Amino acid sequence: MKPPWHRVHARLPFAGLATILIGPAGCSFLVTPSAVQCEDDQDCTELGEGLVCDGNWCVVDPGTADAESGGTVNVETGGSQNDDASVEDVRWSCVDPDAMDPPPTELGDSNITYSITIADTLTQLPPPGLVVTACNTLDRECVAPVVDDIHPGPDGIVRAEVPINFAGFFRVLSDSTIPAMLYIDRPLVVDTVADAMFLIGELPFAALIEAEGLSVDPSLGHLLLKSFDCESQLAPGVSFTSDRGGTPFAFADGLPTPGETVTDAQGAGGFINVLPGAVIVKSWRADLDTQVGTASGHVRAGWFTYIDLESIP
Q1: Range of the domain at 280
Q2: What is the DSSP secondary-structure string of the chain?
């Protein structure tokens, strides 16, 4: 977060005492009671060295100033001249809207461990017959698994030993839940403990959707998305978009609510009845309509596609 405004008093080489106002942009304003201090740089030389004229104010040349970064302050009102610019939120301080997707990386020779708790939404336990397969992104049917037959340990946690730089998806199957794919947003380069993944059976899912006046189309798939902030925490106040359509939903008070479009503290939402095929999803700060994440995956008819969206680096 940008530092607060503060004042530094300094004696100047002319009569009287003025105030240097230092702010976050790296430019310090030398202010006097007069409304207009200068019309060009020459007018400022009378006030001291290293000053230039900027908007009828004599300011310390940013190239020579040794001050904290900042904006400007109006001496009469005390208000920032950048008041109309939004204050950066630490939660999204890492976001760069112009960032490109990281280049593809080759799988490394050594392995890392991806640990995740996978449970049935109703029982909160690993569903019977749970098996996870690590798959290459382009191998959508997973006919040549990277790692096969991964089962939960005695503690219920699935630990997948995958090559370093793995950036594909995990196929998640069980005897009682809707088949699913979990896409990760970044190549795995260190041991990772992921946020828990909750599955749901076909009948409970249909009942949940029908209670909201909707129905499940078996020819379509579904997206469940999670947004993470710069501190890798689930992010509230986020909305999602999908280029494959679907009926949007977000979690509200712990329940997926069709028509709700902004995440609560669970940071989760998605789309029901999505066209099968390659999909690009994006996450946005709902208050500023600013993009904070993007990811891709694949939608299959009758399946759930889970995608974790990290904040744009």
Answers
A1: 111-309
A2: -PPPPEEEEE--SSSS-EEEEE-TTS-EEEE-S-S---SSHHHHHTT-TTEEEETTEEEE-TTT--S-----B-TTT--BTTTTSPPPPGGGTT--TTPPPPPP-PPPSSEEEEEEEEEETTTSSPPTT-EEEEE-TT-TT-SS-SEEEE-B-TTSEEEEEEETTB-SEEEEE-SSS--EEEE-SS-B-S-EEPPPEEE--HHHHHHHHHTTT----TTSEEEEEEEB-TTS-B-SSEEEEETT--EEEEEETTEEEET--S--TT-EEEEEEE-SEEEEEEEEETTTTEEEEEEEEEE-TT-EEEEEEPPP-
